[in-house]
Design a protein that fits this description.
- The chain has one domain.
- It has two helices and eight strands.
- The chain is flat, with a radius of gyration of 19 Å.
- The mean pLDDT is about 85.
- Strands 4-1-5 form a three-stranded antiparallel β-sheet, with no helix packed on it. It has a three-stranded antiparallel β-sheet with strand order 7-6-8, with helices on one face.
- By secondary structure, the protein is of the alpha+beta class.
Length: about 110
C-alpha cells in the first residue's frame, strides 16, 4: 500500500471551507489528506462538487499505457485518491513532485560610514 495520499484541491463554490490548517474561499487551493470516502463526498457535494482536484503530473513506469500515455512518458491528470493508489500500488505510475519554490535571496543593507 502507498503512503498516505495528499491531494491538492481547489474550492469551486462561493463558500468558505475551513479545516485545522485554515480557511479557503472560492478559487483558493489547499493540500489535504482525505480518505477516499471523504474525497468522494467533497467532489460530489450537491451534485456539483465543493472542491475539484488540481491536476498533477505523473510518469508511466509500468509496461502499459496509462491515460493514453506510453511507458516512460508523463501525463497530467486529476486522479482521485482511489485511482492514484490503484495505479501507484500496481506499479503503473509514479507521482512527479513539483520542485519546491526557491527561497528568495536575502539582501543586506549596506552600512553607511
Amino acid at each position: 500500500m502507498t503512503d498516505p495520499i495528499i491531494n491538492r484541491y481547489r474550492v469551486r463554490l462561493p463558500v468558505t471551507l475551513t479545516d485545522e490548517n485554515g480557511s479557503y474561499t472560492q478559487g483558493e487551493e489547499f493540500d489535504k489528506e482525505y480518505t477516499a470516502e471523504e474525497e468522494a463526498d467533497l467532489l460530489a457535494f450537491r451534485g456539483g462538487g465543493l472542491v475539484e482536484i488540481v491536476p498533477r503530473e505523473y510518469k508511466v513506469v509500468g509496461d502499459a499505457n496509462v491515460h493514453e500515455t506510453p511507458p516512460g512518458e508523463t501525463f497530467t491528470a486529476a486522479l482521485t485518491i482511489g485511482e492514484e493508489a490503484h495505479l501507484v500500488d500496481g506499479g503503473f505510475i509514479q507521482r512527479i513532485e513539483p520542485e519546491p519554490p526557491k527561497p528568495k535571496p536575502k539582501t543586506r543593507k549596506k552600512k553607511e560610514a
